[in-house]
Amino acid sequence: MSYEYAVVGGGIVGLATASALQRARPGCSVVVVEKEPAVARHQTGHNSGVIHAGIYYAPGSLKATLCRAGAKAMKEFCAEEGIEVRVPGKLVVATTPAELARMDQLLARATENAIDVVRVDAAELAELEPNVAGLGALLVRASGIVDYVAVSAALRGRIEARGAEVALGAEVTAIGEDSRSVTVVAGGRTWTAARAIVCGGLQADRLARLAGLDVDFRIVPFRGEYYRLRPDRAAVVTRMIYPVPDPNLPFLGIHLTPTVDGGVTVGPNAVLGLARERYAKTGVSLRDVGDYARYAGMWRLARNHLRVGVAELRNSLWKRAYLRECRRYCPSLTSADLLPHVAGIRAQAVRRDGSLVDDFLIARTARTLHVCNAPSPAATSSIALGELIARTASE
Questions:
Q1: Are 250 and 375 in contact (CB under 8 A)?
Q2: Distance (Å, whole) CA 39 – CA 166
Q3: DSSP of 187-200
Q4: Measured at the alpha carbon of residue 374, what is the angle toward residues 239 and 94, in degrees to the nearest 5?
Q5: How far is it, in rounded angstroms, from Cα 339 to Cα 318?
Q6: Per-residue pLDDT, 246
Q7: pLDDT for residue 251
Q8: How many other C-beta atoms lie within 10 A of the C-beta of residue 59?
Q9: CA geometry: angle at 244 spanning 238 and 245, to 5°?
Q10: Rounded mean pLDDT, 31-58
């Protein structure tokens, strides 16, 4: 079957891209090819559900630009679709003098990114959140929460209503390209399109190589483990509570996040995963482990961040260590308050020199465009990111 656009990947970025293509070119034919039996099965459906305001990202970066635009677009989309959005705001809490200094650096970055952020002292923090302790905090009023699986379902409904095909249970096994078209083979079927956009998430590097790109990175899975507070403890905080992040890492630390269903999640940590798409703690893929074990960039990354890696592993293996991280800013929590919750896996692109790709990364051939690195805030940014991808693909 022939289409103008084939989109590989039924996560929120792929669905938002398909929707943006239809808006940019009304009446165009689009197929979305997804290997799972439903959309939003991986990173989209395994995260904290936060609509980020954009305080963390380097000014001028794609993350900074698209997060701001994407947060606004996401809230507008949800209002149109009747999807619940709550905006409780976020407190980024400093618990040590060193974190206070980093907090001021973060405030400067937020100001440069034109984000409304207020610095509060310890007394004001205690007034805002009586169960949270710290030397000071940044109050980010615009940070919100949503169910991204519900957003993805609404996006799917929109694109199908405009005539798109969403092919589920179709794992891509070949991507071929000639001077006139792209051929996608998946699940025993073949689609031909004038252009293809690959939003591969945890499989982004493999799909790029399948399409003939000589990529200089590997996707390394970082497992994010969560707990959920006991229902009777869900009122311990009213806002999102985040630690001040390590500026050398793209991870934001273990945080408390109210959810739209009235609960509170705790996490995630960031420990090296043993599989890209297996969420049980015992899930292992020898292929996935072998892929990064043979990659020199992985070993350079491990050497550069050995201390952090050991600490994250400790938090993963011992609930008491995980709890200790939480109690730095919420000292009333107990081990009994933390109930099991489903994990997530972050697709993180790592270069050969061991550095982490910190921004969204897009690569292309004459007729294909590949979203190679789209970790957080990709869900927040998805509608704006989809529009950027659609413009680029149309060019």
A1: yes
A2: 9
A3: TTEEEEEEEEEE--
A4: 35
A5: 14
A6: 82
A7: 85
A8: 14
A9: 120
A10: 97
Quote the pLDDT of residue 372: 97
Peptide bond into 250 cis (omega under 30): no
Distance of CA 352 to the CA centre of its chain: 22
For the chain, the straight-line distance linking the first and the last C-alpha, in angstroms and rounded, comes to: 23
Q: CA–CA separation, 87 vs 173, rounded Å?
A: 42
How do 264-267 and 255-258 pair as beta strands? antiparallel
Element (H, E) at 339: strand 338-340
Which residue is listed with tokens 């459906």?
A: 45
Burial class (CB in 10 A: 0-12, 13-18, 19+), 254: buried
The pLDDT score that the predictor gives to residue 394 is 82
Tell me the two tokens of residue 172.
């891509």
Task: Round to whole Å and give the CA distance between 52 and 90.
Answer: 9
CA proximity to 151, closest of 200, 202, 81: 81
The two three-digit tokens of residue 72, written as one number: 């606004």
- Alpha-carbon span 259 to 237, nearest angstrom: 12
Place of tokens 């984000």: 115
pLDDT digits (tens, 9 = 90+) for 64-112: 999 999 999 999 999 999 999 999 999 999 999 999 999 999 999 999 9
pLDDT band (50, 70, 90) for residue 249: confident
Residue 26, token pair as written in the block: 């009304």
Phi-psi domain of 141 (left: phi exceeds 0; alpha: psi -120 through 50; beta: other): alpha
3-state secondary structure of 317: helix
pLDDT at 250: 72
Residue reference for tokens 């009777």: 232
pLDDT (0 to 100) of residue 142: 97
Structure tokens at 327: 């109690």
Note whether 125 and 103 are within 8 A (CB): no
User: Helix-strand-coil percent breakdown of the chain, rounded to 5?
Assistant: 35, 25, 35
Tokens encoding 165: 């095909």
Least confident of 124-128, 130-134, 250-254, 287-291: 250-254
